[in-house]
Structures are given as C-alpha cells and as structure tokens.
Amino acid sequence: MNEFTGYKELGLVNSRDLFAKAVSGGYAIPAYNFNNLEQLQAIVMACVETASPVILQVSKGARSYANQTLLRHLAAGAVEYAAELGCEIPIVLHLDHGDSFELCKDCIETGFSSVMIDGSHLSYDDNVALTRRVVEYAHQYDVTVEGELGVLAGIEDDVHAAEHTYTEPDQVEDFVGKTGVDSLAIAIGTSHGAFKFKPGEEHLIRLDILREIEKRIPGFPIVLHGASSVPQELIQMINAHGGKLKDAVGIAEDQLREAARSAVCKINIDSDGRLAMTAAIRKVLDEKPEEFDPRKYLGPARESLKELYKHKIVNVLGSNGKA
Fold it and tell me: What is the 3-state secondary structure of 245-280?
C-alpha cells in the first residue's frame, strides 16, 4: 500500500465549492487532461491568464504512462507554479474514468482530490453498488466523487463504446440518492475521441434531456464528457504537414456554451488539446526537418495548447474571472 498523501497537503481542493459556484453562476469549470509537463504548463498558464479555476484530469492510461508518483508531484508543482505566475487559482486533481474501486482508492491515497467511478458499462444495480462503495470510502477523506449514467460512444484512452445510450431522466434522482455522488456525468449526445461525427451531418446534443434531468435533480452538478469540438483548422494543419486524419467534426461550441449556462458545471476537453499540440509539432518538423531539439517543437505545441484552452475558457465555458 502507498503511504497516504492527502490532497490538502499538496495545496489542492476538491470540487464541491467550485461546482456550487459554477451552477449558481451559469458557467462550467474546465476539465483538461494531461500526460506530461508541457500539457500541464499550458493548462496552468491558460487558467492563470484568464483567472479560471481548473480541474486537472488524469486517466488510468495517463497515470500508467507518466507514473503516479511523478503526477502527484506535478500537480503539487502546478499549485506553486500558478502562484508564481501571479494568480492562486483553485486546482482539483481528478481521476478520469476510474474503472474499479481499487483504482479510485489508490488515487485517493496518493493525493487526488476528486475521482470518477465509471460504472456505466455495468447493470444499473451494479453501477449503483460500485459507485456507492467508492463514495463511502472517498467521503471519509473529503474527496469528491463523480458517477456516470448512460454511455458515450467513441474511443479515448481506455474508454471504448460502439453505441450511444442516452441517460434516462427517470433514473437520475434514484441514482444520486442511492449513491451519494457529488456530481453526475450524463450522456446527451457528446462523444469521446476526435472522430465523433461525419462532416455535413448536423449533430445537436440533447438539451431537452439535460433540461428534464435538471427538473429531477435541481441544482445538482452535471458533467459533460466528450465535449471537444474538433476544430477544422487543426485537422487541416495536421494533414497539410504530413498527417492523415480522417474528416470529422465535434460538438458545436455554441451548444456547449448553452449547456454551461445550466447545471452543467464541468466540461471535459481532451481531444482538441491533442489536435492543437500535434498540429504545432508537425508544422515545426515539416518546415524545419533539421530540428532535433524537443524544446523547439514542444514549446510551440505548449503555446498552441495554451491559446486553445484560453479560448475555451472565455468563449465556451465562461469560467474566466471566477478563480
């Protein structure tokens, strides 16, 4: 067993107060995934420059890739880095798509201030039981828990689903009551990964389902996964510099902004960030094939990611100035 490290020792916060303020204020907290130093720097810089709170997300795959000990120290460093940049923003360290009690427990014991237990692939009763078990353990340490009802199609890290299942509004009140979760991820038409929908096909998220869920659990924090918009200029840049990405479109930003004005208080964005970094790296290596210094291509990638995330904060999430 790991030596227990409470998140408060690292200067982190849980999501409870942030979500309450976001719900009442009509905005959403950015939930950005990171795997390495450059991504973390870009996230912190973007949030400091816009004075936005932030949720640093780590998937099971990212935790394996980057090492749990290094990630813990990176998160603690992010708190100090933000202060050095001139704004002590609230920072949450969150496990994205935890798939077992054991993984959630291990993250809680190594400094995470929030965890997601994703039992959406299980039967309803098994999802309730697993989620409740995680909640009971996490709340002993004031760690907040996100559950999920419904299934998002798409592929991202360890999350794979071929078909989409919308969240049933009739189930949400029962699920929240039986599990004690602090927030609920719902499925209303968003999708994991970069290849969400074919160009030319109008795709609208089901805001009607969202409104019905709000009626059943008024004021309760709602989460949207798979909310990247897949900017076409990034797809074009990648392909112009040697990439071979298929045509795809994501979730329209105006729809996400409308959702963020409601009880949706956390919006996950990962694929757009991957596209921004990859586009910048490909451009440098294509235009300067003699370049071999990682700083010379990861630096522009970091800057591109920072600008993308600043745009999301101001124009999509509305969390600027809320730190």
Answer: CCCCECCCHHHHHHHHCCCEEEEEECHHHHHHHHHH
The CATH code of the domain at 7-317 is: 3.20.20.70
Burial class (CB within 10 angstroms; exposed 0-12, middle 13-18, buried 19+) of 158: middle
Annotated active-site residue in 96, 118, 182, 272: 96
Q: pTM of the prediction?
A: 0.92
Along the 323 residues of the chain, how does pLDDT read in single tens digits? 457 889 999 999 999 999 999 999 999 999 999 999 999 999 999 999 999 999 999 999 999 999 999 988 999 999 999 999 999 999 999 999 999 999 999 999 999 999 999 998 899 999 999 999 999 999 999 999 999 998 765 455 565 444 568 899 999 999 999 999 999 999 998 765 545 456 656 567 899 999 999 999 999 999 999 888 999 999 999 999 999 998 878 888 999 999 999 989 999 999 999 999 999 999 999 999 999 999 999 999 999 999 999 999 999 999 999 99
Domain ranges of the chain: 7-317
- 96 carries an active-site annotation: yes
